[in-house]
Amino acid sequence: MSETATVLRQEREENLRNIYDNKIPKRVPISMYLSNAVVAGYAGVDLKATYWNPSLLKKPLLELSERIPSDTSLYGGSVYTPVSSQTLRSINKVMSSTGYMQHPNTRCMEADEYDELIADPYAFIIEKCIPRLYKGLNAESNPGKNILALTQENQLKMAVGREEMEIMQELDERFGYPNGIGPTGFGRAPMDWLADQLRSFSEVCIDVKRCRSKLIEALDAIYPLLYKIGVCADPENVSRYHSTDFQLHMATYLNEKDFAEVWLPSWKRQVEDYASLGMRTGAFLEHDWGRLLDYVYELPTGSIFSFEYTDAKLIKEKLGKKHILSGGFPLQHLTKCTKTEAIRKTKEWLDIMAPGGQYIFGFDKGAMTHHDVNIENLIAVCETVRDYGVYDNPGTPTGEIFNKSDYKHSNSPVFTSKYYRSWEDYIREFPYTPEEARPLIAQSEDSLLFLMFVMTC
Amino acid sequence: MMTNLEKLQTAVVELEETAVMEIVEQIMTSGGNDAQAAMEACREGLNKVGQLFESGEYFISELVFAGVLMTQVLERLKPALSKNFDQQLGKILLCTVEGDLHDIGKNIVKAMFEAAGFQVADLGIDVKANVIVETAKTENISIIGLSGVLTLAIDSMKAVVDAFKNAGMRDKVHIIIGGNPVTQEVCDYVGADAWAVNPQLGVNLCREWVKG
Ligand code: B12
User: pTM for this structure?
Assistant: First the structure.
């Protein structure tokens, strides 16, 4: 690692650490990310090819990282890719003719299947959801080959993943992106998960009205599963420098009553349970949460909230002391404004968001294609944040302090399922297994659970 | 005292499914003479739901549910509606354009058109321009409704208009476009005959076209 990169990394980590520690940083950190589609478009590379050969993105990524002074790596690999979706013949992730990966309005659970989901959520995922969403794993639609599909997907994913990893490491080393601080966990709000994948966006809108109490019962039943997915692996060693992050989806499309009675309680319980362990929550608040800010305020102190459509003054005033704010800066400014205007808008934005610290600069949404980004303007905006967003009082205490003891863990039942094998079950079946196998078995049961869950995300 | 039809309209606005279906059931068991008027009341109700959405009292989930409710009512009333009720205003082709998979808006528009007495040929989502032109030709449909919410849908809409031009049919059809990103500017760019974000305005426009 070069000396400049080392210095930059230290500076970046310290800035973030200050924010996480309720102190004013030296300057406003910039959190940026460019999707494969944007990078490919910028470089004139075929997006479809990059899924199979990520190294096509390396040169443009090196160039972009050199030019854009982001404090986080621009590259995160790909989330949805044809490498997986085609191998598994998935219907919930499909590639468009231009190579753009998308999530259609699919469902893998019918309205009359709530009781089955409630009885054993993990079994429902394995027996019903996965075979419906992934035709390649379905014994009826892909006989014989369904035995091979998951292993093949895993092989391909690993091969491609290695290349992605190499690029990430090279970028981290060359440009000094922070290491060991920031989001590490991934969670889903119970109702978002149920809506997005199981019942579908539109069907859940109907369930809220038609079978509200069943829906609420289901949210309760899936709670232990969702809790387990997002909770940090070692609850004894929780670090406030990490967060479990959520991508919130359904909330703002509901009226306030449905939001408060149906959507919110299970997620609030989740983040409060996590807070009682000392964990930090991060969340992207999709769409416009303007009318729901009072509820957001109530969430555990020191949560990191990234906004989409927003009234900067309002969120700063209402939430800025208790929580860490992020996002919100309109991506549109990059294409709709001249460079001078974009710089002026950035300064105006910082004048509102930066005072008092507790702010990480970011855009309201990720760009879909390179047409959504004017690189020159993007550079100008980031440089402005870097140079204008400096504080003259770094290290000064700020914001409300998080106190773990303010939160009580709910009485959540332990996660069980007929597909989640305990050690006792294991040795009953294979009595000659030594104790050495125990941690391995436990770990693999957990990673299977995680894999199956991610397949429904 | 509210009449049954007024009650029906209120129940639609309040999305009281049980009440709506009860009244519809009553209308049907007592001979169905009010079926047409009931449709009209429901459409008024649905229109009000749209207004409540625009004014921020209702949200997308209410819109979705209202659409479903409407379809259900129509299903139940159909046998009693004069045989040619759904043809009296003619036929309209409706779909979400190529590349776009969103259909919540389209389904609401469909419910509104059906309730107003149009027959709707719903081609679904992600529909290619040539399929639209072919269907219009074979089914002899002269009103084309295109829906889309992705920005890329705008170019797909333009492709549909161009496809009608290429097929020599542009002057035989009226094309109306809608969806969140649609504006007058977009309409000019696409070369459509009209645009509407409010489905009721769309219905009104198409009624004019049918009258000629
Ligand atoms: C619901 C939703 C989904 C659902 C769709 C469910 C379904 N069955 O439709 C799901 C979760 C599946 C989804 C998926 C995706 N979505 Co989406 N989705 C939305 C959301 C939240 C609401 C859209 C909606 O239904 N609006 C409500 C309806 C009622 O409004 P409307 O369509 O405008 O219709 C009204 C009027 O316009 C009019 N109208 C409509 N059509 C017509 C036609 C005529 C003729 C007339 C007269 C009137 C008319 O009447 C309707 C009633 O008032 C929006 C965000 C938002 N707040 O708008 C994002 C949004 C549209 N989605 C977006 C994206 C990016 C996607 C994905 C590509 C994400 C992904 N990477 O997978 C995929 C889509 C894949 C694809 N190719 O389409 C972006 C689009 C960005 C852009 N600039 O193009 C948005 C804006 C979110 C965002 N802020 O980024 N999505």
Answer: 0.92
